[in-house]
Amino acid sequence: MTTAGLRSDGWDIRGAVGLPDVPGQGRDVFRVLHVCTGNVCRSPMAERLMRHGLAGRLGDGAAGILVESAGTWGHEGAPMEAHAAAVVAEYGADPSGFTGRELLDDHVIDADLVLTATRDHRAQVISMGHAAGLRTFTLKEFTRLVRAIDPTTLPDAGVTERARALVRAAAALRGWLLAPSPDADEVRDPYGAPVSYFRSIGAEIQLALDPVVTALTGIPAAV
User: Fold this and answer.
1) What is the pTM of this model?
2) Which of 31, 36, 101, 144 is catalytic?
3) Of the candidates 120, 131, 135, the residue with the CA atom closest to the CA atom of residue 186
4) What would the CATH number be for the domain defined by 6-217?
């Protein structure tokens, strides 16, 4: 594995050329999988907020990135939790039509990037195998790594190629840029809490997603 140093303006993707490609290389669609426990609160919010952010930047081009979710103890077929759906709608995203899923091997196999709510979820995904280690991060961990990557080193050939290069660069950087505290990469579970707490978790998720969507697309959020 080849790695490069940390530049003053960010990590250079050219230092990660020795990393293996993520699964799905060459496909026209880049697949993102959000994972939490029940797949009714955190991961559905992340799924729908990310879809909304991608559509806002790419329009019809957002079809090049497929965003899904599942739960390690997923409530198969369940609707999104009502407070979670309300928070999603408050951000202008669409919560309709959601149904919960239990995390399966095929979900991990198909995903080009897995973003989990907590480190425990990350460990569970990686323990499933399928060479998931280099493409599985907690959401906040991935955000922290993405912020350190020099965006000018990412390819402009297309959104899927750019997204796969971003994952390789983040995987290369993970050992160089550690979390400031053990809980820094965690998104807490709001299940059973009042809507005000769901709003705080929704804000955490949205704050973490914004730089990720910007890095994936190369387009900053509209002011």
Assistant:
1) 0.88
2) 36
3) 120
4) 3.40.50.2300
